[in-house]
């Protein structure tokens, strides 16, 4: 009935539980596609043929990068399968996902875009590769990373550890940073974060809680788990503004700028499924991109499965493959709906 219009889909058990499979299958079928849940424990070839491979392999790629033998084997099998079937549209290509997992690499890619022309920046950052504090001081200075800075593990996925972060307030506490990690200047933004969800040429954004304002001081390092901070229902004590900060005026986000960010990062990372965390700096009103994720949760994205199928069909029709170029015909993406 579907010919070879079959979508192989793989995601972790945890992510899989959040998917409304019956609805997703129905939407696929409305677009003429059969949805197939790929089993990576079994031979892939025997489960094919497929025209599309949709996946969230971030954690497995991250584990493979850290040397985990089983994950390495799984990724090898998947990459071999893709290379012997170059006609399959992969969303998103594994090499493109891989470069996003390294926070330093991801920030470097954002930094190299022309978003600064639109009042958008990625906060100053550098890698911390050594426990030699003198060397770290030099690296921080060279990259103009000031205090306080937020210290994040270099590898942004794969384990709980990827989300164990620190806010470092002074040189005296540099020893708290455990390399390999990335130091990123802390941007005061009154504890409001915007998550942009990108699906091909469509995007949507939501407001989320974030960290309160901090200033350089002699205070001790704050250790926190980032997964407790910016979920829709997070209630971290680190999000409660100091009394004097409650008066700081709030800047409403400009959907056009968020669209420019979405469009530019989609091109820069050559990926269709992206989540971008943006904060608006107090007083300057500039937009700081602080995090980019592959295939985010899309919580609240209206008619997500339709948007996803539209994106898949666009890719299939454009005939662009593994090394997709994203020669976008549009300057900005289509916003679904603003809040
Ligand atoms: N440079 C920064 N300045 C201010 N707050 C930040 C900065 N980077 C991250 N944060 C805060 O820390 C949280 C976690 O950081 P993020 O890089 O998004 O980690 P994760 O990969 O775990 O999502 C963000 O949601 C935001 O609240
Ligand atoms: Mg984040």
TrEMBL record:
<dbReference type="InterPro" id="IPR041429">
    <property type="entry name" value="ITPK1_N"/>
</dbReference>
<feature type="binding site">
    <location>
        <position position="291"/>
    </location>
    <ligand>
        <name>Mg(2+) 1</name>
    </ligand>
</feature>
<feature type="binding site">
    <location>
        <position position="195"/>
    </location>
    <ligand>
        <name>1D-myo-inositol 1,3,4-trisphosphate</name>
    </ligand>
</feature>
<keyword id="KW-0460">Magnesium</keyword>
<feature type="domain" description="ATP-grasp">
    <location>
        <begin position="112"/>
        <end position="321"/>
    </location>
</feature>
<feature type="binding site">
    <location>
        <position position="210"/>
    </location>
    <ligand>
        <name>ATP</name>
    </ligand>
</feature>
<feature type="binding site">
    <location>
        <position position="163"/>
    </location>
    <ligand>
        <name>1D-myo-inositol 1,3,4-trisphosphate</name>
    </ligand>
</feature>
<keyword id="KW-0808">Transferase</keyword>
<dbReference type="GO" id="GO:0016853">
    <property type="term" value="F:isomerase activity"/>
</dbReference>
<feature type="binding site">
    <location>
        <position position="56"/>
    </location>
    <ligand>
        <name>1D-myo-inositol 1,3,4-trisphosphate</name>
    </ligand>
</feature>
<keyword id="KW-0479">Metal-binding</keyword>
<feature type="binding site">
    <location>
        <begin position="184"/>
        <end position="195"/>
    </location>
    <ligand>
        <name>ATP</name>
    </ligand>
</feature>
<feature type="binding site">
    <location>
        <position position="152"/>
    </location>
    <ligand>
        <name>ATP</name>
    </ligand>
</feature>
<feature type="binding site">
    <location>
        <position position="293"/>
    </location>
    <ligand>
        <name>Mg(2+) 2</name>
    </ligand>
</feature>
<dbReference type="GO" id="GO:0052726">
    <property type="term" value="F:inositol-1,3,4-trisphosphate 5-kinase activity"/>
</dbReference>
<keyword id="KW-0418">Kinase</keyword>
<dbReference type="GO" id="GO:0005524">
    <property type="term" value="F:ATP binding"/>
</dbReference>
<dbReference type="GO" id="GO:0000287">
    <property type="term" value="F:magnesium ion binding"/>
</dbReference>
<comment type="function">
    <text>Kinase that can phosphorylate various inositol polyphosphate such as Ins(3,4,5,6)P4 or Ins(1,3,4)P3.</text>
</comment>
<feature type="binding site">
    <location>
        <position position="293"/>
    </location>
    <ligand>
        <name>1D-myo-inositol 1,3,4-trisphosphate</name>
    </ligand>
</feature>
<comment type="similarity">
    <text>Belongs to the ITPK1 family.</text>
</comment>
<dbReference type="InterPro" id="IPR008656">
    <property type="entry name" value="Inositol_tetrakis-P_1-kinase"/>
</dbReference>
<feature type="binding site">
    <location>
        <position position="291"/>
    </location>
    <ligand>
        <name>Mg(2+) 2</name>
    </ligand>
</feature>
<keyword id="KW-0067">ATP-binding</keyword>
<dbReference type="InterPro" id="IPR011761">
    <property type="entry name" value="ATP-grasp"/>
</dbReference>
<protein>
    <recommendedName>
        <fullName>Inositol-tetrakisphosphate 1-kinase</fullName>
        <ecNumber>2.7.1.134</ecNumber>
    </recommendedName>
</protein>
<feature type="binding site">
    <location>
        <position position="15"/>
    </location>
    <ligand>
        <name>1D-myo-inositol 1,3,4-trisphosphate</name>
    </ligand>
</feature>
<keyword id="KW-0413">Isomerase</keyword>
<feature type="binding site">
    <location>
        <position position="297"/>
    </location>
    <ligand>
        <name>1D-myo-inositol 1,3,4-trisphosphate</name>
    </ligand>
</feature>
<comment type="subunit">
    <text>Monomer.</text>
</comment>
<keyword id="KW-0547">Nucleotide-binding</keyword>
<dbReference type="GO" id="GO:0047325">
    <property type="term" value="F:inositol-3,4,5,6-tetrakisphosphate 1-kinase activity"/>
</dbReference>
<dbReference type="InterPro" id="IPR040464">
    <property type="entry name" value="InsP(3)kin_ATP-grasp"/>
</dbReference>
<feature type="binding site">
    <location>
        <position position="103"/>
    </location>
    <ligand>
        <name>ATP</name>
    </ligand>
</feature>
<dbReference type="GO" id="GO:0005737">
    <property type="term" value="C:cytoplasm"/>
</dbReference>
<feature type="binding site">
    <location>
        <position position="277"/>
    </location>
    <ligand>
        <name>Mg(2+) 1</name>
    </ligand>
</feature>
<dbReference type="Pfam" id="PF17927">
    <property type="entry name" value="Ins134_P3_kin_N"/>
</dbReference>
<dbReference type="GO" id="GO:0052725">
    <property type="term" value="F:inositol-1,3,4-trisphosphate 6-kinase activity"/>
</dbReference>
<dbReference type="Pfam" id="PF05770">
    <property type="entry name" value="Ins134_P3_kin"/>
</dbReference>
<dbReference type="GO" id="GO:0032957">
    <property type="term" value="P:inositol trisphosphate metabolic process"/>
</dbReference>
